[in-house]
Amino acid sequence: MTEIRELNTIDIDDYHSLVSEAIHDQHIVYAWGVYDESHIPKEYLAHLLSEHNTNERVFGLYLDQSLVGVATLIHSSVYGLRHKGILQNMCVKMIDHHASQDLAEELMNYIVRFCQHNGIEIIMTSIASNNISAKIFYRKYNFDTLGVEQHARKLGNKYIDEHWLVTDIRQ
What we know:
GNAT_dom; 40% strand; alpha+beta; Acyl_CoA_acyltransferase; Aminopeptidase; globular
């Protein structure tokens, strides 16, 4: 049985564990911004999951009371920007390809409904240029490539290009 809910500070350890595993390529990643565990200290996670953080919401997907998927939605309350959100750090545990795909779709469907319910009309995300499975996944949700950001991330001396994707989810 699955459940999706917004994570809070009580969930820090589970969230940290899942994100750490995703960094080490143990899970299926659909959008990612964290590449090194040193960039996810507990203080940052406490802020991210705090009820006082009104610009970022972290959704957790639970399977049999175990956290198996997460996604962060960044949403500005600034007038003129309220109609769009940015999806980041979405991953699901690798169970098997079909089960993991189904979980990712369940999480994404929840996020789309959340956005529609809260007046968010456009969802943007960025994916590493070599993440073919994410490109295929987002195509199901009518994401189009907005552009390619060269050298979007720098890890040591290595650069990663990212594709920016966008979809209009107005009903």
